[in-house]
Design a protein that fits this description.
35% of the residues lie in helices and 20% in strands. By secondary structure, it is an alpha/beta fold. The protein folds into two domains: 101 residues, ATPase, nucleotide binding domain (Nucleotidyltransferase, domain 5, 2-Layer Sandwich), CATH 3.30.420; 157 residues, ATPase, nucleotide binding domain (Nucleotidyltransferase, domain 5). It has a five-stranded mixed sheet. A five-stranded mixed sheet has the order 10-9-8-11-12. A two-stranded antiparallel ribbon has the order 5-6. The longest helix has 25 residues.
Amino acid sequence: MSSGSPPYLIGIDLGGTRIKALALSPDGTELARRLTGSDGPDWAARVKTVVDGLHAELGPSLGIGLAAPGLAASDGRSIRHLPGRLPGLEGLDWTRHLGANHPVPVLNDAQAALLGEVWRGAARGGRNVLLLTLGTGVGGAILCDGRLLRGHLGRAGHLGHITVDAGGAPDIVNTPGSLEDAIGNHTLGRRSAGLYDDTARLVADVVRGVPRAVEVWQRSVRDLAAGLASLINVVDPELILLGGGIAQANDALLRPLQAELDRFEWRPAGHQVRLAATELGDLAGAYGAARKAQLLLSSS
């Protein structure tokens, strides 16, 4: 690194198929980006190779943060619980693995995405924000009074696993009639009686006015609105962010969702919670991981 190289942070988002790494200045300006696959048994070595490469190019970083699926350990140094995916991730101490001079904070990927959106995205400056990622399933995170909610075991923010139909079948964590099963792409075939297997195709038919598609979509959006209304009553957010593949339906989602919330939402003194799409896309977790490293450094 030359003497004029700027100080920077590294944020890493480790997913089931991709490793996304960003080098960011302290104000969040992107300096470098590295994307590579995470498939295969050598995924942990690949993360280290990416970090070492950024250090070789830009010099030592101020700090490194890492986001990953699963429940983070209470000490914030590893992922404590993620069965069946990324073998070797559980219990891996990232500070030691990366040979870092400062502790490497590790946090859940959805929580990191919310932190990134609050720092540099659609929720910039927010203090009470919900994030829902609508895709194969439904993930989420909660920022309450400026702090990410982690909970006793790190389960806080699993917003897809709330009940919207008490008589419904149990989902993967045994929640009956969950929000995840009501709108997640993985149940679309069942919800549409086999007519659709992809939400993008469903939405395309909704836009064209195909009656069966409209019926399936309206029911899913109504369930989502009911879930959001319940979460609003519990968490009292100023803003709800929607991300993930299903949120790419844009107005085809936001307009009917807002109409349903106009029916369901409790609005003391006329206050209405704002809905918005995320802005940072699939890099939000890397932004949030870098921000977590920055916050850790500032508190030490």
